[in-house]
Amino acid sequence: MDAKRTDHALRHLKGIKPYDGWSADKYINSSGKELVMLRRRNAPLTKSGYLALAYDEQKQQQQQQQQQQQGTRTGTQHHTNNDTNGCVVGLTSEIGKTETTSFYRAVVLVEKDGTVAKDQRDARVSLPNDLSTSGIGSKFGKGKDSNSNAMKEDLDAAREQNRRDRDNAREAIGRRQQGAGSGARAGTESGSGTGSAGSASGAPFSAENLLGNIDMSDEQTSELAKLGLMFIGVVTILRIISSSTFVFKAVVLPIGILYGMMTCPANDTFDPKKELKRVLRGQHLPEGHQDKPPDDWFSRTVARVTASVVAEASTAFGYEVSFTSFGGAFTLSTVLVPTLNMELYWIGAFGSWRYIMKRKTQIES
After folding, report:
1. 238: burial class by Cβ within 10 Å (0-12, 13-18, 19+)?
2. Do 8 and 138 reside in the same domain of the chain?
3. Which of 126-135, 174-183, 254-263, 287-296 has the highest mean pLDDT?
4. Virtual torsion, Cα 263, 266, 269, 273, nearest 10 deg
5. Which residues contact 90 (CB under 8 A, 6 or more apart)?
6. How many domains does the chain contain in total?
7. What's the mean pLDDT in 229-243?
8. Separation of CA 337 from chain center
9. SS3 state at 43
10. Per residue in 249-258, pLDDT tens?
11. 195 or 343: whose pLDDT is higher?
12. Is residue 194, in this structure, part of any structural domain at all?
């Protein structure tokens, strides 16, 4: 019975809204109960399912007669929600049942005009037990109820309304496109003269019309020309840089390596004491540095004498010199002075030794 009610509800929805993609998805919940969920265009209308889907087709007079009969027989009366007439509902639980009618608690899912219910309100519905004699069957040509003609008329009216809505939408789109085309032709005629007007009246979406609609002033044209020249200049500079990089990698770098290998100073030309004296008197410091002595004879003499004394005293207890060659192109010299807790670095390249840096060291006793 539940499956038949669901099928009848789907047939009703497909009859009044044939392009909405109605479907029913059945599943079994954690309690082992089979539930059904209504989908529109493959999107579920609710988060949970129902015992069945049903189309509440009963008229108010039929409901009142059935309620009176039920109240006379049992002494109780089941109230139904007249707002559900013509709506598709989801049945949540069964309240009661007679020989001809069943009473359910339900939730309204689809209104009688085929639109999805914005507020899925709770309701109570009474449904006939024999679906073959219901208005649903007569609506689809399967019953003999006296309301079959009215149901068919309602269905035909709904279909006619859908057809009129589609026609009105097409006409609105056509008028909008026609208005846009006429506006484009008017702009072309006023800006381009008679020649452009002839092409506009011929093909509204041709390439000539699209180009004719672009009405640019002299300033805009000059700005566009400047942007084009800037783009060409940037592309040219990038190509020059890329070609220069290639030339540097292919020509300049190998020549520089060969020249460095030819002019790399020998290890025996490095004098640790002499280079240490130069560092101590601040020869490597730039002009204006606070540790660099003033540029006069007395200050230079005092700095030279002080550096010589410190260098001789610190190297008197020994020092360590090491050399590291990098492919013969240049050599890294390291001097470790334990008394000063200092390690100094020089690089030998292109025929001379150049001071790089120094760092403090912790010498274990």
Report:
1. exposed
2. yes
3. 254-263
4. 110
5. 36, 38, 46, 49, 50, 51, 52, 53, 54, 106, 107, 109
6. 2
7. 82
8. 61
9. strand
10. 677 778 878 8
11. 343
12. no
Q: Both 274 and 141 in a single domain?
A: no
Provide, rounded to the nearest whole percent, the portion of the chain with pLDDT above 90: 13
Could you tell me if residue 227 is inside a domain? Answer: no
56, 127 Cβ separation under 8 angstroms: yes
Q: Are residues 10 and 139 located together in one domain of the fold?
A: yes
- pTM for the predicted model, two decimal places: 0.36
Task: Identify the H or E element spanning 254.
Answer: helix 253-263
Strand 101-110 relative to strand 122-128: parallel, antiparallel, unpaired?
A: antiparallel
Amino acid at 14: K
Domain that holds residue 288: 267-360
- DSSP of 123-176, one letter per residue? EEEEEES-GGGSHHHHHTT----TTHHHHHHHHHHHHHHHHHHHHHHHHHHHHH
Taking residues 281-304, what's their average pLDDT?
78
20-60: pLDDT as tens digits: 889 999 998 888 889 999 999 888 999 889 999 999 876 54
Residue 224 resides in a domain: no
**Can you tell me the distance from the alpha carbon of 346 to that of 58, in angstroms, rounded to the nearest whole number?**
103
Other CB atoms within a 10 A radius of the CB of residue 18 amount to 13
What are the strands, taking DSSP E only, across the chain? 22-28, 34-40, 43-44, 52-55, 88-97, 101-110, 122-128, 320-326, 330-337, 342-349, 352-360
Is 176 within a domain?
no
User: And the tokens for 235?
Assistant: 């592309």
